[in-house]
Amino acid sequence: MLLGLLAGAALAAQTPSAATPWEGAGPLQPIVTADGHTDPAVRGAWRSRGYGWIIDIDEDGVTRFQSGDTCYRPPQEGGPLSDMSSVHYRYFRALPGGKSAIFQLLAGDTNVVFDRLEALPAPCLSPVQATPQVVADAFLDHFERHYAFFDRRPPDFAARAAKLRARMHPDMDDDALWTALGAFMDGLSDSHTKLIGVVEGKKRRIQDGQGETLPRIRASMGEGAWLTQLMAKTRAGLGDTAHQVAQDRIIWGVIDGRVGYLQVFVMGGFTDREDFASPEWAAAELGALDSVLDEASTAFEGLDAVIVDLSNNRGGWDAVAKALPGRFTEKPYIGFTTRAPRSGLAPFPHWIRPADGPRFDGPVYLMTSDVTVSGGELATLAFRQLPQVRQVGTTTRGSFSTPLPKPLPNGWLLELSNEVFAAPDGTVFEETGIAPQEWLEIYDPADPVASHWKAVQSVAKEALGD
């Protein structure tokens, strides 16, 4: 926590231009140019601010290293263990002077500032011995440097770290090491912080913070059956107006000829493309979303109200989370901010831009639950800035941060919540979630299928003043 306070003090002492470098950055440019080689302007070694990366760019590409108490290149065999660990920076924006630059995966994504190094540090070139002690040390180092929410969640880092170190011994096997790391994470209550690995030939995962509804559903009827029945019930309720589109990720229609209904299950996956996080994938995803929203928004024109149902939204791409409220505003506004506490940068404002296509300017009812998480919560934050929006349902999950992938020396993957997402006024809802303005049970444990559509009907009735 002392490190966080010192970082905050340092931030306050900086000039606005130093804390907001994106304001003076050059245009977005590809790291790899059309000829298949890297842009000479960014070749060399770079160290990130607040994200624990060192990257080395030569003529042919980018090599990424973990940077902390030591520097190492994670094992490359076996392929990525998660989507987040499979993606790499594609673009850069030069900063004045040439000694720093912003690197991004896609246009509009997080601004990660890197500073030039004279050369790649020598420790990065030395092979790492993935002993249990080395793995545990890297695990703890990543947590201490990058986990942003020890003030909001229970771990008590120092005590847990001491217990983990006490359990280390040179001849422990992978199963014992996995159990020891899992004990450190027990009770973390953060669905964006997880450990993924292959132990004794089987893929394992440690992840907490799933809320109450999903664990209950998984232990009873099963999540697949639940979703299938929910979708069928929703389509039946919408009748002839029902549309289930975008790889079944979106359902929309009209209730009683007077209230529009739009349910989005995931912030992305609207196409069958497999080139995840490529520019082509991004263009196709947003194109598919715009096509759906154009049709739905046109159908909603002149209706009394629209229900935007994010009560089963599992998150996804931030650009989708920002595009949805863009259909309900006539002017741009800041939906939320992001900041990596140890980056030394000011909170970055994420603007919601009015959509170019049709928009709805009447009352909006936003439905949420404890299933609503990540990108669903970002959209909720942004929607809540609009005066005509009323949030109904139950409190969201409280897990906002984009997972920061930190591969360990033995090939296991640790993902951490390292960014603080906040409302424009600075309010942070991590762990607590965003409480609704009007409480309404969405997924009643007694009947988690029928209760959802009953809740939708209740909201529609309220919207009509009946």
TrEMBL record:
Residues 238-441 form the Tail specific protease domain. It holds the Pfam family Peptidase_S41. CDD domains: Peptidase_S41_IRBP. SUPFAM superfamilies: ClpP/crotonase. This is Peptidase.
